[in-house]
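Work Package 4 report. The design task specified in the project plan requires that, given a folded chain encoded as structure tokens, an amino acid be chosen for each position. We show below one input record used in the internal validation round.
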């Protein structure tokens, strides 16, 4: 029987009772779940590793993820010419992508109890550039008045 789970680096099936697995780190004997071989699972073993050996378990999970990560995404498809040009076009102020960033900026202002003037500060401008060159290059954040009106209308304070 093939055991692909990283869990088996820490466990071995009990020679006495096949429904149990023995932890190689602390010798605990744990149930493999289920009533028969077809229903055995690793849930209890994973819970044990999470609680009793979290550092070792995290290291193995990370190294295994790095080893098994594909070089390219299976779903990667070359974009068509229209999509390629759209990706290079700066967003207009009312573009859905711009609106999502307007909303996030507005929420940050509200949550942090900031003045709407924060949109002119170098730090926030730098963050928005990193988020999307297409947002700031075309919108230049349009000033706090427009952002504030947009956000206040989005959350229903003004119409």
């Amino acid at each position: 029987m093939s055991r692909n789970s990283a869990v088996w680096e820490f466990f071995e099936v009990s020679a006495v009772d096949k429904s149990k697995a023995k932890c190689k780190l602390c010798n605990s004997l744990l149930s493999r779940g289920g009533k028969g071989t077809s229903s055995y699972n690793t849930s209890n073993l994973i819970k044990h590793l999470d609680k009793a050996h979290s550092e070792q378990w995290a290291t193995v999970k990370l190294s295994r993820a790095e080893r098994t990560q594909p070089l390219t995404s299976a779903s990667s498809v070359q974009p068509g010419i229209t999509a390629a040009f759209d990706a290079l076009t700066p967003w207009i102020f009312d573009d859905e992508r711009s609106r999502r960033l307007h909303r996030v900026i507005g929420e940050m202002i509200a949550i942090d109890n900031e003045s709407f003037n924060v949109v002119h500060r170098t730090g926030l401008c730098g963050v928005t550039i990193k988020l999307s060159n297409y947002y700031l290059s075309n919108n230049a954040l349009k000033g706090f008045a427009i952002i504030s009106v947009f956000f206040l209308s989005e959350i229903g304070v003004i119409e």
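Residues 81-154 form one domain. Validation will be extended to a larger panel in the next phase.
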